[in-house]
Amino acid sequence: MLSYNVYKVLHLTGVFLVLISLSATAFHVMSGGTKATNQFRKKLGILHGVGLLIALVAGFGLLARLQIFSTDMWIALKIAIWICFGLASALLYRKPKSAKAVFWLTIVLAVAAAFLAIYKPA
After folding, report:
1. Which domain holds residue 33?
2. Looking at the 3D structure of the chain, how many domains does it have?
3. I need a labelling partner for 9 at 20 to 30 A (CA). Which of 2, 61, 64, 76 fits?
4. pLDDT digits (tens, 9 = 90+) for 7-36
5. Helix-then-strand count for the chain, H and E
6. Full-model pTM
7. Phi/psi at 69 (nearest 5 deg)?
């Protein structure tokens, strides 16, 4: 089992990968780009998926290190945010007019996830 700090760095790395890929895709779509015209689409998709996987696995590693084995509300909310991040990439190409809203919502959700992780409200 890895140390708490290693899990934390891995978790944040995954989150950063997801946020970078979503931001790049959102800006491409906001600039009028499409799925077909995004020369980095495949790389961004891989970055997004790998980031989601790392964030999820490391997040559960952190819970194990903290010996939290219950499903507190803050954990359920963090998983819901993770699902939203997972769906956001597909939404950007399917609903291009939502790109600006998705971009700002991504920031709001990231801040909410950080709040939940730090304060762990019941």
Report:
1. 4-119
2. 1
3. 76
4. 999 999 999 999 999 999 999 999 999 999
5. 4, 0
6. 0.94
7. -120, 10
